[in-house]
Amino acid sequence: MEFVVEMLNIRKEFPGVVANDDITLQLRKGEIHALLGENGAGKSTLMSILFGMYQPDRGTIKVHGEQVKIANPNVANKLGIGMVHQHFKLVSNFTVTENIILGNELKKGFVLNIKEAARRIEELSKRYGLNVDPHAKIEDISVGMQQRVEILKMLYRDAEVLILDEPSAVLTPQEIEELGKIMLSLVAEGKSIILITHKLKEIKAVANRCTVIRRGKTIGTVDVATTSELKMAEMMVGRNVTFKVEKEESRPGDVILKLEGLTVNNNKNVPGLKDFNLEVRAGEIVGIAGVEGNGQTELVEAITGLRKAESGRIMLDGHDITRESIRGRIHKGIAHIPEDRQKRGLVLDYTLEENMILQVYNRKPFSKRGILDKGAIRKYASGILESFDVRSGKGPLSVSRSLSGGNQQKAIIGREIELDPGLLIAVQPTRGLDVGSIEYIHKRLIAHRDRGKAVLLISLELDEVLNVSDRIAVLNNGELIGVVKASETNENDIGAMMAGVKIGGDQ
Ligand SMILES: Nc1ncnc2c1ncn2[C@@H]1O[C@H](COP(=O)(O)OP(=O)(O)OP(=O)(O)O)[C@@H](O)[C@H]1O
Question: What PANTHER family does this protein's entry cite (predicted)?
């Protein structure tokens, strides 16, 4: 069997944590090889080693059977290895072509010929079914398209081995399906792919083999066709998992959040949310279903105060908060798990404990007469990190940037739930989380509801909206299409409503 890349017995230690402990991964030519593991298991570290961003402490890397030293990403590129990161590295006011040739101009003998580059990009785009316009500006194209630009960047540099780090985390369900087709066309042309993903369905749909790692160690490599999703999940977590969400019928109480005729402009200064009405009661979870970009951002930002309402009213506990400041709303009991954890969720250069008290540092017991009580802060932060199983090298003292993406997300969720808010707004709360953590977060959202609090859940994962919510409000083109009980609907009906078809009445 021909291996294009072999990573043998790789070890990598960071202060306080062994991220990779004797990991072996062998990539066959022309296969899609999934890399599965819990949050913080060591996947990104392993791939960063393959891409030359970190040096392993021990172990061997072979490319086409020959031992190599990948000192930096340029060496990786030369060896035919390319990587698409979770956070894209594109210049937003440059065109697709300019972004793709960026970096290449430093090479010896490079002659700038944009026309020729654009022609080649177009050709590659056609060949692999990417459908990218080489002249479009990055800021004008969707996230899905931007990801394809990243893929094109690798192809333009003749990469043979493509590493995709959680590529579907930022995509809509339709874009995920298209990405699957693109991956299949890439391997059909002889490329080999390492795919990091938490989505078992996706592994089943496209991957040939799957290597599972847990807490830095290889658990095994399996053939995907003959291994069930449940089996892979259990290998990863090391215990039985259920995909079902257990919950009792909700017992809604008083109205906590009431939106009346809310109209909110989008970034282009036209209404992104139009004349929107909704109630969320104590003791219930209301899910918002909709294709991305149909008013969800405007809705959340208006409630949290990040964006102003053009007209209409936002009522919290019977009080009008439409003009209230962001901080005022937090004090009145609104907590927010934001969509973009790196931009709005955490101050990445702060430690975890500093991040855990962002909203409460000036209250007792954390601050007395203007002086911070370090002991009280540490105790509070440690409690959250333990309860939400946030794994990091130095616990509360870890710099937030050093945490794996999934663990950053768990820390934010823990911080917001710990505030015990009357209204919890959870936007894509489980994006990037492994199945064990998803199970846990769902339980915590339901427990919050069961304590008589209101939860507004915004998610692009239809399964999540259907399983966790009590009622579902469907958005299409900024308008409320309808509100249905989760127990009385199904994926097809919600899908039709998301496309703008009105089914069922207002509940
Ligand atoms: N630069 C770093 N400094 C210190 N610790 C780090 C660094 N990078 C990663 N770690 C730690 O190494 C471990 C593995 O992290 P890694 O990002 O590889 O996990 P992952 O499997 O990719 O997780 P996720 O699914 O959440 O993205 C984590 O405990 C993380 O906190």
Answer: CARBOHYDRATE TRANSPORT ATP-BINDING PROTEIN MG119-RELATED, GUANOSINE IMPORT ATP-BINDING PROTEIN NUPO
ipTM, 2 dp: 0.97
Question: How far, in Å, are 44, 217, 291, 365, 393 from residue 167 at the CA level?
Answer: 13, 23, 18, 42, 26
Q: Which domains does the chain have, with CATH numbers?
A: 3-237 (3.40.50.300), 242-333+421-507 (3.40.50.300), 346-419 (no CATH)
Concatenated DSSP letters of 158-196: T-SEEEEESGGGGS-HHHHHHHHHHHHHHHHTT-EEEEE
Higher pLDDT, 50 or 109: 50
CA 8/CA 29 separation, integer angstroms: 17
Cβ-proximal residues to 47 (8 Å cutoff; 6+ apart), any chain: 35, 83, 163, 165, 194, 196
Cα separation, 390 vs 396, in Å, equals 10
What length does the chain have?
507
179 pLDDT above the threshold of 80: yes
Q: Quick check: helix, strand or coil at residue 426?
A: strand
Strands laid side by side in the 309-316 sheet: 271-281, 255-265, 309-316, 319-320
Gap from CA of 389 to ligand 1 centroid (Å): 14
The reply to whether ligand 1 has any atom less than 6 angstroms from the CB of 47 is: no
pLDDT digits (tens, 9 = 90+) for 295-323: 999 999 999 999 999 999 999 999 999 99
Q: Are 362 and 372 contacting, i.e. CB atoms less than 8 angstroms apart? A: no
Q: Tell me how far CA of residue 189 lies from CA of 28, 56, 128, 300, in angstroms.
A: 14, 31, 9, 43
Nearest to 335 by CA among 429, 432, 473: 429
Helix (H) or strand (E) holding 7: strand 3-14
Six token digits for residue 317: 């506990």
Q: How far is the CA of 402 from the centre of ligand 1 (A)?
A: 7
Q: Which residues of 412-450 are buried (b: 16+ CB within 10 A; e: fewer)?
A: bbbbbbbeebbbbbbbbbbbbbbbbbbbbbbebbbebbe
| Mean pLDDT confidence for 442-447 | 94
Question: Ligand 1: which residue has its CA nearest to atom 8?
Answer: 402
Indicate if ligand 1 lies below 6 Å from the C-beta of 287.
no
